[in-house]
Amino acid sequence: MHIILELAIILIATKLAGHASVRLKQPAVLGELLIGIVVGPALLGWVSDSDIIHILSEIGVIVLMFIAGLETDIDGLKNNAKSAFAVATGGIIFPLGFGYLAGIMIGMDLAHAIFLGLILSATSVSISVQTLKELGKMQTRESITLLGAAVLDDVIVIILLAFMMSFFGGEDVNTMTVIAQKALFFATIIVVSWKIVPPVMRWLGSLKVSEPVISAAIIVCFSFAYYAEMLGIAAIIGAFIAGVALSKTPFKEQVEHKIEPIAYGVFVPIFFVSIGLKVSFAGLGEQVWFIVAISLLAIFTKLAGSGIGAWLTGFDFHSSARIGSGMISRGEVALILASIGLDAHLLAKAYFTPLIFVVIITTIVTPPTLKILFKNEREQEKSAG
Fold first, then answer.
1. Nearest alpha carbon to residue 297 among 29, 125, 96
2. Is residue 127 a contact partner of residue 147, using CB atoms and an 8 Å limit?
3. Cβ 323 vs Cβ 301: under 8 Å
4. 235: nearest Cα among 61, 13, 8, 69
5. Where are the domains of the chain?
6. Rounded to whole angstroms, how far apart are CA atoms 298 and 182?
7. Burial letters for 262-281: b for 16+ Cβ neighbours within 10 Å, e otherwise?
8. Helix, strand, coil percentages, rounded to 5, for the chain
């Protein structure tokens, strides 16, 4: 029953921390991220990084990205496909290149240096999504481009990982098979979203049971997430596409209205806290310089790379900065890559914990950065008016 108490602590801690963050004129998600460090093993030790917490946090991020898909303007996503590709490409080239150079400079061998760059190339847009929702900016052109870029970033990084595993990882990984799996996923998921999801929703929604529509939506969400994971793509991408698929059905508003209380009342707070639970201050004294340097590198290479990609495709300087800042968070995608790299001997154990800190720092700086940049947008609109 200890897990029940931990869940109660997580929920009250995130709500109080989120409230305090808003009172300090910061997004609530910033407080919810930081409180995980406070209640976790790093400080108070009230909540442990257990398997159950991990599973519930996975559900949290899946549902969060499902909601993001529900709120995405699919026509806007199509119209901004070129920009999304440029943002994703720039957001990979800069961190990968400079991360590799940093690895070589500190004495890493070729494989380890490339893998460091690959970890820095990852993007997890879930934190940005929550911040943009709080700011009421989910329907802007910047946000739509950001979401599209994050999906492409994830796919490209996974394909690059497959190349690395085949050359350096000591595993029998067929790169063409990996690419074929990605192509199969997107080809089939588009057809399923277009032709199968609407009739399935109508059929399941007509069942004479309680809340059939919301259950049907969650079934679609989890099925898409599982299918994505099965074919080597992050579950959050499948969940996001499931949300986009349902956004084109008559059930969109009903699903959105009923799933948000479940998500933000229970599962999403657990996801935010779970990031802080991975922090440990033990033995970090010798690695402080590495954490600071790589964190700055991670922030500025993603900001510059993605920002330049946006600028080259028609966004002005301020919009490009907002898009670049939204791509900074590495989140759970980089954590997964780090774990894979450790198991495949592409990442030295001595660098694993410091890189977890780098991931957490990039995740924590994203909400206030977005808040500042969008605040500047409002000030510019006032001065123009």
1. 96
2. no
3. no
4. 61
5. 49-276+284-378
6. 27
7. ebbebbbbbbbbbbbbbbee
8. 80, 0, 20
Phi/psi-derived region of residue 123, left when phi > 0, alpha when psi is between -120 and 50, beta in every other case: beta
**333 confidence band (pLDDT: 50, 70, 90):** confident
**Cα→Cα distances 50→40, 82, 163, 274, 340, Å:** 11, 41, 32, 9, 19
Under CATH, to which class is 49-276+284-378 assigned? mainly alpha
| Confidence band, pLDDT 50/70/90 cuts, at residue 15 | very high
Q: Which of 122, 133, 97, 82 is nearest to 367 (CA)?
A: 133
CB 17 within 8 A of CB 359: no
pLDDT in tens, 123-151: 877 778 888 888 888 888 898 899 889 88
- Give the pLDDT of residue 378: 55
Tokens found for residue 305: 């790379």
Residues 133 and 318: their CA atoms lie apart, in Å, by: 19
Q: In Å, how far are 60, 112, 129, 248 from 70, measured between CA atoms?
A: 15, 39, 12, 9
DSSP 347: S
- pTM: predicted TM-score of the whole model, two decimal places: 0.74
Tokens of 179: 């690419």
Neighbour count for residue 349 (Cβ, 10 Å): 8
Residue 119 has pLDDT above 90, yes or no: yes
pLDDT tens per residue, range 260-311: 898 989 998 998 888 888 777 776 777 888 999 999 999 999 999 999 999 9
3-state class (DSSP) for residue 138: coil
Amino acid at 136: G
Q: How far apart are CA 211 and CA 221, in angstroms?
A: 16
Give the C-alpha separation, 127 to 355, whole Å.
18
Band of pLDDT at residue 229, cut at 50, 70 and 90:
confident
Distance CA 385, CA 380 (A): 8
Ordered alpha helix ranges (H), 313-348? 317-326, 331-343
pLDDT digits (tens, 9 = 90+) for 174-224: 667 777 888 888 899 989 998 999 999 999 888 888 889 999 999 999 999
Tokens of residue 368, six digits: 């206030």
Residue found by looking up tokens 């080259």 in the block: 312
